[in-house]
Amino acid sequence: MLDAFEIVPNLPVLVVTTPLIGGILTIAMGRGKGPWAWATLITGLVFYFTVLLMQQVLAAKTGFISYELGNWPRQWGIEYRVDALNAFILLTVAGVAFVTTLYAQKSVEKEIPQDRHNFFYAVWVLAVCGLLGITVTGDAFNVYVLLEISSLTVYALIAMGKDMNRQALTASLRYLILGSVGASFILLGIGYLMMVTGTLNMEDMHDRLAALPDAVHNRTVLVAFAFLLCGLGLKMALFPLHMWLPKAYTYAPSAVSALLSATATKVGIYMAFRFLFTIFGVGFSFVAMPANVVLSVAACAGILVTGVTAVRQTNLKRMLAYSSVGQLGYIVAGFALANVHGVAGSVIHIFNHAMMKGGMFMAAGAIMYRLGRCDLRAVRGLGKRMPLTMAAFVAGGLGLVGFPLTAGFISKWYLVQGALEAPHMWPVAAVVLVGSLLAVAYTWRVVEAAYFQEPEGDSALVTEAPLSMVAPMWILIGASVYFGVSATFTGEISMRAAKSLLGGAP
Amino acid sequence: MTGALGIYNYWIYVLLMMIGLYGVIAKPNLIKQAIALGLFQTGIFLYYISMAVIDGGTAPVWTTILDGAQKYEGPYDNPLPHVLILTAIVVSVSVLAVALALIINIKRTYGTIEYDEIEAMDQADKRADYQRGQVVDAADDVEHKLEGHHHA
User: Fold this and answer.
1) Any idea which of A15-29, B59-73, B82-96, B107-121 has the lowest mean pLDDT?
2) What residues of chain B lie within 8 A of the CB of A184, using their CB?
3) How far is CA A401 from the centre of its chain?
4) Which of A145, A177, A312 is closest, CB to CB, to B143?
5) Which InterPro entries match (chain B) (predicted)?
């Protein structure tokens, strides 16, 4: 049946076109449950495509699939190129998108007026389209265009929280301005690269940069590198360029926070992989240029500062937002090590963190659904009232800490191993451990409130969140526990991705 | 023209970009920030267009098709950056549209588009929440001051 529609050979482009067309059609799905059901169908379909794509990539002899849009040769046209790394990220993004769409139904009904649901889900599906597009493409300018598709839709999604709190509007505008500056820096960087190499295809760019006699002293290349590093830093919310993130995640609708925390910044990091490793290459980025020093210092400072800030927060969503910046720090510190275990730890943590933090934001959203707020005072005594939700939060928190048998443990194992293997990088290992202690501190504050304090006010009366919210939450948290116990699949994929990024066998 | 003056397009692009960046950072009025963002992006468009120029080059149009007689054999300017910027202009217009939509909504809910005043109103909201016994302990305020400091 699949072959009849020629789905398999066209998978790379279907991953983008399905949500692109589906997203626009969402607007026509009426005012009831229609838009939600349609969005679920589309994201489910896309998830299925990414699973198929993953199988194809694993089966491919070369280790990657190359797809030329409209059969234009890659020198002129756009090439979509899927290897172990982006197949894995695609699977993560599409999977989380599907599960959060399931979760969104009740949450969105509560937080967003009925007459805007069709627009909400349209923008939601288009955001997923942009994120998947960035991940699948092998063309540098296509990255910029899809980046703007995802950014514009994300600004709109965040602003939809305005009916809960008007600060969503200012949070969205601030992100819009910083995000556009970041994207413009990326556009400039791509321009300078095109000036030197005369191509937009990532692989060709790499080959021509490598062929330059003296790339390290070529001013144009250096300027491109600087602009790209700066723009990517803004987009992936690398400390201290993260100032847009906490407010945006706090005031966005709960379902949007869950989706963004698990996908948006992760795709930013994926772009960093492509630009730093695939285009410039390890030799340029990390040996000739001090990107490893800049990135690991920023990442380590980020882990510590945002960890301390997270401990001081009283709003759960804000706490999780700061924690996200810290966790992104782990991912960046990992790939800045530029050795196999560091990069593999980074890739695996993209997946693990998406599961844990997505699940935790869903738990915060469930509390929001029942109580209309999610501060520490509202959480008091909820351990008995909403046992499944709070248990999910705690399980996710244990993952952030890196407790054995959770996915977080696996990530940190790889990261610490990478840090100890790299020369003079042991402080990174120390920071990873201190960061874990900070995660204990902020998770404990919630545990204490939920399980050791008596409920007050409304909290005494609430019941467990509806099944349609608890089930998706536990799918993500369950995945984070499952891949903590059995990390063979994620481990193998990320080792393979790391080796191909570092220039070994694919 | 040679030397630094010969590439005056690039000087203008840097100048436009810097004016834009300054506006984005320094202007408290949200509309002015949006205008500055537009200026910033326009600078980048100029950069791309300048990069396409070749000495003695002309528009990449095949003249035989137009007049049927003579055929001009290059050199042509590189059409690719022009095409890319056509896309980037569309993107920039969309960004501006979303920004203005947000600003209209901000004006409706806050009654102002001055960043300082909005910030003050958010602080007042926070104090009201505190008095109602919701959210906030001292830590939130400290952190908020920190954020304000960064913005300034």
Assistant:
1) B59-73
2) 40-41, 44
3) 19
4) A312
5) CPA3_antiporter_subunitC, NUOK/Mnh_C1-like
- Chain A partners within 8 Å of B125 (Cβ): 167
Q: B56-69, pLDDT tens digit by residue? A: 777 777 766 556 66
Q: List chain B residues with CB under 8 Å of A373.
A: 134-135
The answer to whether the CB of A137 falls within 8 A of the CB of A146 is yes
Task: With H, G, I as helix, E, B as strand and everything else as coil, classify residue A63.
Answer: coil
What 3-state DSSP class applies to A41? helix
Write down the ipTM of this complex. Answer: 0.87
The number of beta carbons lying within 10 Å of the beta carbon of residue A44 is: 16
Residues of chain A found within 8 Å of residue B83, distances taken between Cβ atoms: none
CB-based contact B106 A170, cutoff 8 Å? yes
Whether residue A264 contacts residue A150, with contact meaning beta carbons closer than 8 Å, is answered with yes
The burial of A139, by beta-carbon neighbours within 10 Å (0-12 exposed, 13-18 middle, 19 or more buried), is given as buried
Query: Could you give the CA distance from residue A345 to residue A332 in angstroms, rounded to a whole number?
Result: 10
The DSSP call for residue A280 is I
- pLDDT beyond 90 at A113: no
Q: Which DSSP helix (H) or strand (E) runs through A81?
A: strand A79-83
Of the candidates B41, B142, B150, the beta carbon closest to that of A184 is on B41
Question: What's the CA gap between A439 and A400, in Å, rounded?
Answer: 6
Q: Which two tokens stand for residue B76?
A: 């042509």
Looking at residue B144, its pLDDT comes to 47
Is the separation of the CB atoms in A66 and A53 below 8 Å? no
A392 touches B: beta carbon within 8 Å: no
State how far the Cα of A433 lies from the Cα of A402, in Å rounded to an integer. Answer: 9
Q: Between chain A and chain B, how many beta carbons pairs sit less than 8 Å apart? A: 95
Q: How far is B59 from chain A (nearest CA, A)?
A: 19
* Cβ-defined contact of B95 to A194 (cutoff 8 Å): no
* Burial track A90-101 (b if 16+ CB lie within 10 A, e otherwise): bbbbbbbbbbbb
Give chain B positions within 8 Å (CB) of A166: 109-110
Question: What are the structure tokens assigned to B133, written together?
Answer: 């016994």
Query: Which residues are CB-neighbours of A366 under 8 A, at least 6 positions away?
Result: A107, A254, A386, A389, A465, A469, A470, A473
Please give, rounded to a whole number of angstroms, the shortest distance from the CA of B61 to a CA of chain A. Answer: 18
Those residues with Cβ within 8 angstroms of residue A177's Cβ, 6 or more apart along the chain or in another chain = B24, B33, B37, B99
pLDDT, tens only, A187-228 = 999 999 998 888 899 988 888 888 888 878 888 899 999 999
